[in-house]
């Protein structure tokens, strides 16, 4: 039986950024015919057995249109409901309220006045991708102008104390496929990095990583809490990336949970990860 899968990019990256290159032959080896398409193209996505979001990195400027498109696709992974929840970083506050160890996060809606941490801090839009619109400020700085700029653009501002561990050890990304841990990789500090040629994301320094036990334990808590908030089983998430940093006390904290279109670091791990991904796609269809 031949199945069809469409990997979804955007106009600037219609075949992704190269990280998913190994996924195509892995899917083909399990009986899929595979193609790429930009999400806003004229392709008939409803005819595919699986439509998999991979590099839809222009959604931040067109989120209502993107969400409408997601809801029109019958076999979307991850689902439109997951995408709606995950593309607004206010989900971090929900996870924080659920007792998950999250980098302290506050939201400033348009029209509200901001209160800034006493330490170095970061201000970014609650809807955004690739660290666009994110800026770091020194302790005691007045970031009101940046907050106002985000508000003018229609964004809610998200404020977090800067985690200085990023400067030395960066972030740790744990990848889950079908709700099960697959692999991990490290990410260097992104603030101050250069923009990729597509203009959609900041270039990152990535490397394979072996996550310590406390990081894995937190990632498991994150996925359990997120699944509970979404009212789904973890296995219903084709992919998830849990981005962690170390707090001032050395303990891991959730920085972001990526359930929509994250790079999954296939170039930072062995070939079996792409096959696990392809197998998980078959599991979702079953």
Tag the structure with descriptive keywords.
286 residues; alpha+beta; five-stranded antiparallel beta sheet; globular
Describe this structure in words.
- The protein has 286 residues and is an alpha+beta fold.
- The chain is 27% helix and 24% strand.
- It contains 8 helices and 13 strands.
- The chain has helices at residues 23-29, 63-72, 80-86, 91-97, 144-152, 165-169, 213-230, 272-285, and strands at residues 3-9, 32-38, 50-53, 76-77, 106-108, 121-125, 135-137, 157-161, 171-177, 180-187, 206-209, 239-246, 252-258.
- The strands form 3 sheets. It has a 5-stranded antiparallel beta sheet. A 4-stranded parallel beta sheet has the order 2-1-3-4, with helices on one face. A 4-stranded antiparallel beta sheet has the order 5-8-6-7.
- α1 (23-29) crosses α8 (272-285).
- The longest helix has 18 residues, at 213-230.
- The radius of gyration is 18 Å and the shape is globular.
- The mean pLDDT is 94.
């Amino acid at each position: 039986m031949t199945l069809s899968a469409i990997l979804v990019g955007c106009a600037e990256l219609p075949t992704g950024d190269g990280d998913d290159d190994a996924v195509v032959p892995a899917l083909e080896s399990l009986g899929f015919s595979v193609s790429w398409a930009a999400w806003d193209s004229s392709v008939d996505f409803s005819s595919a057995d699986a439509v998999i979001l991979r590099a839809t990195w222009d959604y931040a400027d067109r989120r209502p249109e993107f969400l409408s498109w997601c809801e029109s696709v019958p076999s979307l992974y991850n689902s439109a409901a997951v995408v709606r929840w995950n593309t607004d970083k206010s989900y971090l506050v929900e996870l924080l309220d659920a007792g998950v160890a999250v980098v302290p996060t506050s939201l400033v809606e348009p029209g509200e006045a901001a209160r800034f941490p006493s330490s170095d801090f970061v201000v970014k839009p609650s809807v955004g991708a690739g660290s666009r619109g994110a800026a770091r400020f020194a302790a005691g700085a007045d970031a009101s102008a940046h907050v106002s700029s985000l508000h003018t653009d229609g964004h809610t501002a998200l404020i977090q104390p800067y985690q200085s561990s990023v400067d030395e050890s960066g972030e740790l990304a744990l990848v889950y496929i079908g709700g099960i841990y697959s692999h991990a990789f490290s990410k260097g500090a992104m603030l101050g990095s250069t923009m990729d040629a597509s203009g959609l994301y900041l270039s990152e320094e990535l490397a394979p990583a072996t996550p310590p036990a406390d990081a894995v334990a937190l990632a498991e808590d994150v996925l359990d809490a997120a699944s509970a908030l979404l009212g789904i089983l973890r296995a219903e998430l084709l992919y998830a990336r849990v981005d962690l940093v170390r707090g001032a006390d050395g303990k891991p904290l959730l920085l972001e949970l990526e359930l929509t279109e994250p790079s999954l670091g296939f170039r930072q791990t062995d070939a079996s990860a792409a096959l696990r991904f392809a197998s998980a796609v078959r599991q979702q269809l079953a």
